[in-house]
Amino acid sequence: xxxxxxxxxxxxxxxxSTAQLLAEEMLLLTKRAIPASTGYMLQNSIPTVSIAxxxxxxxxxxxxxxxxxxxxxxxxxxxxxxxxxxALDTLAAxxxxxxxxxxxxxxxxxxxxQVGVLLQRAVVLLLALFACMALLWIWxxxxxxxxxxxxxxxxxxxxxxxxxxxxxPGYIAFECIKKFCQVQGDMLSSTLVLVAMLPVNVLLNVxxxxxxxxxxxxxxxxxxxxxYLSAGLLILYVGTIGRTTTRQAWGGWTWHAxxxxxxxxxxxxxxxxxxxxxxxxxxxxxVALLAARCNDSAMAAQSVxxxxxxxxxxxxxxxGVASSSRLGNLLGMRSCDLRLLRISAQxxxxxxxxxxLLAGTVLxxxxxPIGQLFSDTEATxxxxxxxxxxxxxxxxxxxxxxxxxxxxxxxxxQHLGANCNLVAYYVVALPLGYWLAFHTxxxxxxxxxxxxxxxALGLVGAGEYVAVTWGTDWDEQHRRANARADPL
Length: 488
Fold this sequence. Notes:
Layout lengths: L2 H5 L10 H38 L4 H25 L1 H15 L4 H34 L1 H7 L4 H14 L3 H15 L6 H23 L6 H23 L19 H32 L4 H37 L5 H28 L1 H8 L3 H16 L1 H17 L2 H25 L7 H24 L4 H12 L3
């Protein structure tokens, strides 16, 4: 179903009460967020399943190398795709609805192809950006040694990353094609592809890690193949099931995608988008490294808590995806109801508040059983139960950060989100958490580190909410979005 078919009543100026509009927008965002969140969880499961299969070998060094390898890939490589493709939330979402609201049928079809041009631009430019990171992967051993990692581990991680680098084009292509669908209102196709890839991922990992005897290196081989198959299957989906909807925005390959003005415009949004996503992820990885300085129970508890946080993070992440595409779509309309823009922007944190309260409440009630599920050590279970209330406390803030961050991306204000993260995490939270963990009379350890993260998410959520609610000139944002959506 196309955007116009699904939401035609929302395209014009509405004579509807604010409460009714807010309810409609909250329902729409929830419907869009559910498949997006599910897809994010499924995508995260790809390396997790692979690590689990590597662990069956009983080789602790190989297991550590796989965990380190995927962590490095996430914060230095995959972030390029996930963060950089947010430029499409700004550019392609607006271009799509600008074309859809063109009264001239022939001009509408021509303008719609601009979404496909933006897809090509994203794939090529993000691959070029990743090439710089690939050099770090290829020669990662010396970097890891400089960071104090054991030589045997550093050597294995380098071998691991040298294989995984081959899967990067597949990952980047999948992310960009997924955005191509999402900005047109199709949140389901990429999730269905990832559901189909679940058994394929398991079979490939078992075959390459165990059956064919590649061991550790079979893991990045299998995962790379899964990324290429995911991209290929999504292309097939768009070309067949989506041939009358999302496929219409593809006009074929063109050198126009490398227009210099368009390249600069894309990078101006993509690089802050990468920083916006990457600064948060790296901060949480730093907390994991600092937790290793506490004790064995803290390390084990940190693993459990991070696993739960990654699962819960799928909710605000999916809501952010839904918010960014929705706002981008609304801003791209030639004639726009500014009241609807404001209400849609407020609907995102409203949904996030409800989701955060529900998730936090559930987490409080099951905090001890969660520890027991992952560990039989009483000290670890107690620590998990003590720290999880902090994770429960920041669910609303995390929701605000995810949803309002999505609104900012839809407007093309990724730089504000990046700045909020830089200040909140690296100026306030990490120093505060380190001090609470190691340099106070109480020496709170893991609890102190996570207290810092609660403060960070509170600052980010509040800062982005203020920017969206009181720091936005919607008339100006609408004008800018239409200027950006003009074919370049």
